[in-house]
Description:
Layout: E1 5-10, H1 13-24, E2 41-44, E3 49-54, H2 59-64, E4 70-74, H3 75-81, E5 86-90, E6 96-102, E7 114-117, H4 120-129, E8 135-138, H5 145-148, E9 154-159, H6 163-167, E10 171-179, E11 181-185, H7 191-205
Amino acid sequence: xxxxxxxxxxxxxxxxxxxxxxxxxxxxxxxxxxxxxxxxxxxxxxxxxxxxxxxxxxxxxxxxxxxxxxxxxxxxxxxxxxxxxxxxxxxxxxxxxxxxxxxxxxxxxxxxxxxxxxxxxxxxxxxxxxxxxxxxxxxxxxxxxxxxxxxxxxxxxxxxxxxxxxxxxxxxxxxxxxxxxxxxxxxxxxxxxxxxxxxxxxxxxx
Length: 206
């Protein structure tokens, strides 16, 4: 397994899109992952790949600390975790936006507003650059109801179509960043793996 490339994939659509891309580009000949299985580790012995299915927020950690050589994760997660990894390539799928949203479409920023989000670092960095010191409230789900219940003034969250915001009476105030899936890598790759990964990158770019 010494020359096997271990890749961390986030459970869900990004993992499926990654495998589809690898098959299309000829990096893989067969799909070794059963996405309906409860297994978390899948081996492709012929092509010498091992895939791990993990939580998206954990992908950069597995890569940074060398448990995985490569990983696929959204740009938003890279920024939030501030992981010390190589960001090799924008894979061009998994598009979404990180936005500030509020119940009042004309909401104006001020000091000491309360921001509900699971992206605490991104939210703090965004408001600090604008000169506002805010209180962040970390939530892990159903962020949209925070302003409705008076828990926060605004939310910072990922937006795809915007339908969930509309159904909960929220409006996008500002776009913080766009996010797509990125291929990331460990900074201490062994020489044998480096050449294989270089070949993978060339095939993806081609």
